[in-house]
Amino acid sequence: MQPVVISAMSRKGGAGKTTLVRAMASAFVFNKKRVLLIDADPNRALATWAERAGKRGTSSPLLSITETIKMDELTGIVDETFEKESADFILIDTPGVGGGWADTIAMLSDLLVTPLILTRTDLEKSMETVTWYDRLRERVSDPSQLPPHAVVITRFVVKSGKSVEPVSLGQQELLSEIRSLMKPVPYPMRERLAYQDMDNEGLLGARAAQLKADDNPLIRGRARRYDDALHEAIVVTKAILSRMAAAPASTTKAGG
User: How far apart are the first and last CA of the chain?
Assistant: First the structure.
């Protein structure tokens, strides 16, 4: 099976690209999939996260990381991974700005995913990403070769455990507008402490396993929030992948 290339793209920094990539990596590794992370963001947030996870013992032999901001090098990394079939999924984290690099990454990818926080600013910036994608379809000779584009609502705030509605009427109206304009995947990523802690703690499943192995029952009890976040990450990741299944069939992006 050749790797599936998924690239997180947004023209706004702080939209949650890296958090989304970490969550997807956690979901794939939990399901015993080999994951190659490529950090193409000069800020190196994904690369430093992977380094911390390795030091804390919350990474996995199934997870590998490399980084480059040069598109020729990135293309070579993807091609080599295809040739060796050394990963099941390649996840690419990208800068929160526009540029010619975006066209290159799009043509290498099987799926583009854009995280979106429920704010007017994020909606407008995400629309810039959607506009870029639409214009790219007009520029390429065969639009069917472009990957599908999925939008994921992130940092979704809820009232309580019994409600999945936004906390305000304004957010409900904004959510309705987003659904009309972008048709996001049906499952949002909630605002969870586990996702925030993941920046320091590593893979969700690995951190949960560490906590469950602790002798202190109070420490073991903290594993639940990581398990809950991991379950959500798995559901959201499946919803993202379903956009590939719904897209028209096209030839492989890389590796022949």
Answer: 13
